[in-house]
């Protein structure tokens, strides 16, 4: 019930104002439409004109461009009115007849031959005079786009034209949308986030709609009038709806978080696809799917409110802005909420404004969500790094124990020798001095071993210049015992390459890669590892016959391990890649050589 109440509140807040506000636009006259190709005399006496709120949606089905528009005009003032009628109508070819008492007072011909997107005509109405303007739309070459008709005072003609064209026809909103589109497209190719890719596709139809030269481009590409109509009225809206459904699916990860939402999206995608195939085959433009699924988008946002309030609110508002043109301009509803503020009265203009606002809001919501994902991923990587270091610590403690065993035996033997020699009264000063030196040598060795491991596990990230071969040597010291046990031959060839960075981090990566090679060589008799340092690149190669091509692309994934039966965590190579690429600034990749696997640490771009 709480969910239902929340949904109704949002529904009322967003849709109720749109339904309640009247259509307020004094500059747009009442219009009547007659879809017949007849003469002016027949038009004057024809009673079949039907009243329409003339807009893009009324014109979209008129494949035959020969039709009539009737506009009644009257002057109830005591002064004559000097007016201009402006047709924002791309590629318009019109005949205007000013009629009084069935008599033609004036005839004008208008043709947007230069494709400016508007034509206009001046006229005068005397005091207390009533005129009827009959506008004949004639067949012409190329595709025409109707936007609106305005009647204004003559002195305001060019002001109204320049205002309309400065924002809507000169690419103001197109510039905003195309900038957002390419910015997010670049980000998508950088991070490969699916929802971002679908967001770019969501932006594509309104961006093309807003292009001031889209029709010119399509005509230049030899698109027929029919194909342009199909593109604008079927393909673009279908792409808009389908891509927004897919964006919702991946943005909220419905498959994992909201299974019922995911099922509904899949059904809506199928229904939308079938409906648009029907529209294409039968040349019918129905956008009922947009009206049906808008409340669903609100519901998805509401369901996600507890999880992420800000992102959900931005998504809900964006949905309302995106689908406003579809519902209130491609449907039979005669509601003009935005006309109150925009005073434009056209689908294309409103789509530019609403979709630009929606694009900006969605961009913010995506940024917020990606920021959270980034910090979650960063936290996850730190947690994995800690686990990896703990796992390495366990191995190193075992190695310390092994490395100390022999020195401790030697110290014990030396002390026993001193005791026995003393009891036999054969302990001379020189002999005692020699034995003490031997014991101190063993103790120093043990102390150095401890220092090596303390340096390795140090949390201090001191960046300094160091030789790459010194990091390799430190890693070899840490792994000498297990390598000796496994009878692995290690071959090192190095130049004098240096970098500025945290040496311990590189040592950790080297120990991971060398340990990985050691594990791969367990079943081999001849065990060889080659380490080559050349021009700030470190090559670690073994002769274990390489990595299976089916899994070579996955070995850097977290928790992916080929040695689960040997308690492999699947974190080592993942952490090695994170450390090299995120912390040090290099790159780490692997390939198969003739001998086996070859890991390449590229530090050429590190100072």
In short:
Helices cover 55% and strands 18% of the residues. It is an alpha+beta fold and 607 residues long. β15 (587-592) and β16 form a beta hairpin.
Features:
single chain, 607 residues, alpha+beta, Jelly Rolls, Heat Shock Protein 90, 3 domains, six-stranded antiparallel beta sheet, five-stranded mixed beta sheet, 18 helices, disordered N terminus, EC 2.7.13.3, ATP-binding, histidine kinase, membrane
Strand count, sense and barrel status of the largest sheet are: 6 strands, antiparallel
Shape: rod-shaped
Strands ordered across the widest β-sheet: 2-1-3-8-5-6
* C-alpha Rg (nearest Å): 39 Å
- Strand percentage lies at 15-25%
Count of DSSP strands: 16
User: Portion of residues in helices?
Assistant: 55-70%
Secondary structure: elements and pairs:
Elements: H1 2-20, E1 31-34, H2 40-44, E2 50-52, H3 56-59, E3 67-74, E4 81-90, E5 93-100, E6 103-111, E7 119-125, E8 130-137, E9 145-153, H4 157-169, H5 172-191, H6 194-210, H7 214-220, H8 225-251, H9 254-257, H10 259-282, H11 288-303, H12 309-329, H13 339-342, H14 347-423, H15 429-456, E10 463-467, H16 468-485, E11 489-494, E12 498-502, H17 503-520, E13 528-534, E14 537-542, H18 572-584, E15 587-592, E16 597-602
Parallel strand pairs: 11-13
Antiparallel strand pairs: 1-2, 1-3, 3-8, 4-7, 4-9, 5-6, 5-8, 10-12, 13-14, 14-16, 15-16
Helix pairs in contact: 1-11, 5-6, 5-14, 6-8, 6-14, 8-10, 11-12, 12-14, 14-15, 14-16, 16-17, 17-18
């Amino acid at each position: 019930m709480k969910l239902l109440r929340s949904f109704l509140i949002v529904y009322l807040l967003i849709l109720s104002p749109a339904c309640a506000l009247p259509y307020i636009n004094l500059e747009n006259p009442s219009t009547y439409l007659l879809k017949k190709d007849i003469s002016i005399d027949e038009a004057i006496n024809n009673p079949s004109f039907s009243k329409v709120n003339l807009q893009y949606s009324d014109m979209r089905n008129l494949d035959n461009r020969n039709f009539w528009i009737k506009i009644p005009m009257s002057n109830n003032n005591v002064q004559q009115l000097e007016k201009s009628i402006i047709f924002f109508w791309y590629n318009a070819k019109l005949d205007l007849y000013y009629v009084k008492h069935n008599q033609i007072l004036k005839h004008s011909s208008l043709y947007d031959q230069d494709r400016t997107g508007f034509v206009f005509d001046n006229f005068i109405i005397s005091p207390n005079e009533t005129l009827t303007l009959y506008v004949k739309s004639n067949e012409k070459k190329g595709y025409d786009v109707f936007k609106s008709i305005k009647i204004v005072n003559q002195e305001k003609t060019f002001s109204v034209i320049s205002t309309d064209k400065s924002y809507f026809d000169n690419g103001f909103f197109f510039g905003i949308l195309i900038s957002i589109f390419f910015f997010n497209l670049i980000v998508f190719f950088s991070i490969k986030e699916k929802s971002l890719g679908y967001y770019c596709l969501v932006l594509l139809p309104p961006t093309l709609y807003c292009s001031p030269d889209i029709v010119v481009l399509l005509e230049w590409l030899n698109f027929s009038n029919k194909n342009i109509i199909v593109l604008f009225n079927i393909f673009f809206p279908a792409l808009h709806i389908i891509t927004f459904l897919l964006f919702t699916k991946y943005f909220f990860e419905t498959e994992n978080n909201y299974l019922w939402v995911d099922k509904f999206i899949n059904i809506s995608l199928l229904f939308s696809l079938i409906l648009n195939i029907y529209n294409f085959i039968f040349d019918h433009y129905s956008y009922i799917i947009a009206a049906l699924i808008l409340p669903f988008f609100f519901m998805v946002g509401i369901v996600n409110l507890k999880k992420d309030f800000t992102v959900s609110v931005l998504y809900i508002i964006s949905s309302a802005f995106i689908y406003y043109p579809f519902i209130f301009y491609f449907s039979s509803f005669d509601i003009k909420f935005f006309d109150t503020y925009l005073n434009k009265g056209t689908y294309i203009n409103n789509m530019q404004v609403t979709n630009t606002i929606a694009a900006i809001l969605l961009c913010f919501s995506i940024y917020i969500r990606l920021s959270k994902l980034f910090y979650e991923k960063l936290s996850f990587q730190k947690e994995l790094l800690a686990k990896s270091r703990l796992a390495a610590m366990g191995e190193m403690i075992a190695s310390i124990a092994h490395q100390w065993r022999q020195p401790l035996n030697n110290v014990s033997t030396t002390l026993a020798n001193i005791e026995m020699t003393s009891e036999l009264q054969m302990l001379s000063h020189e002999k005692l001095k020699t034995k003490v030196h031997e014991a101190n040598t063993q103790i120093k060795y043990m102390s150095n071993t401890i220092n090596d491991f303390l340096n390795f596990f140090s949390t201090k990230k001191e960046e300094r210049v160091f030789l790459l071969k010194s990091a390799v040597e430190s890693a070899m010291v840490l792994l000498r015992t297990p390598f000796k046990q496994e009878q692995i031959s290690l071959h090192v060839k190095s130049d004098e390459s240096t970098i500025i960075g945290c040496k311990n981090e590189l040592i950790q990566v080297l120990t991971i890669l060398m340990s990985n090679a050691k594990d791969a060589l367990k079943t081999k008799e001849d065990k060889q590892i080659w380490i080559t340092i050349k021009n700030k690149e470190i090559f670690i190669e073994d002769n274990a016959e390489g990595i299976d091509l089916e899994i070579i692309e996955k070995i850097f994934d977290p928790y992916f391990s080929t040695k689960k039966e040997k308690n492999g965590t699947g974190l080592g190579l993942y952490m090695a890649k994170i450390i090299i690429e995120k912390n040090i600034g290099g790159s780490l990749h692997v390939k198969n050589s003739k001998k086996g696997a070859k890991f390449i640490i590229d530090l050429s771009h590190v100072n």
